[in-house]
User: What shape does this take?
Amino acid sequence: MKSRTHGTQRGATLIEVLVAIVILAIALFGMAGLTSAALKYNQFTRLRATGLSLVTDYAERARANLVGFADYAYTKAYNPSTRAAASEDPTSPRGACLVDTSDPTSPVNTCGAAIAAYDQSQWLTNLANRLPGGTAYITPELTAAPSGVSGLPATRVLNIWLIWSAIEEGSGFGRQEQLQQLCPAGANIADEASVNCMYFRITL
Assistant: This one.
């Protein structure tokens, strides 16, 4: 006996299959874009956490050496060709210094600058190793206590800009322009330079 085929039954045409494939491809491309954006955002967040750790380390070094506070400034112009990760610490040994408190009214302490130079050299090496092409621009502020107020110490502030090579994820979230605006004017960074900057203001 021959089976009957109803006229309403039919298979998918080639055009319908192609349309379904196109729709599926568009959906997959969208998911791939979201995944890529999430990975970029995670990497950017990791770099920010690294930057915060570095700034905290530098602030603690300066806090432990208030005598040499002014020497923690680092205001060299931006030069990408001189910054590279170092496999070995090139920090020079701390220079000789003198501490003489035999006369309490006029103590002598020349160790502040030597310790600051050592701390800064070591910290900049660590910065270049932990952030791609990392460097910094640092200005200290020292505000004396108001006159007539006894026992109030001077206020010490470090303005720290971290500068590193731009990463691709910066542009994916519209962050690149914002981060470039955070770069310090004194670093003389060209407008076309591909860098990111983060600014921190630390009160010691």
Q: What stands out?
A: The first helix runs from residue 14 to 63. The beta strands are 99-100, 108-109, 135-143, 155-165, 195-203. The longest strand covers residues 155-165. The chain has one domain: 47-145+153-203.
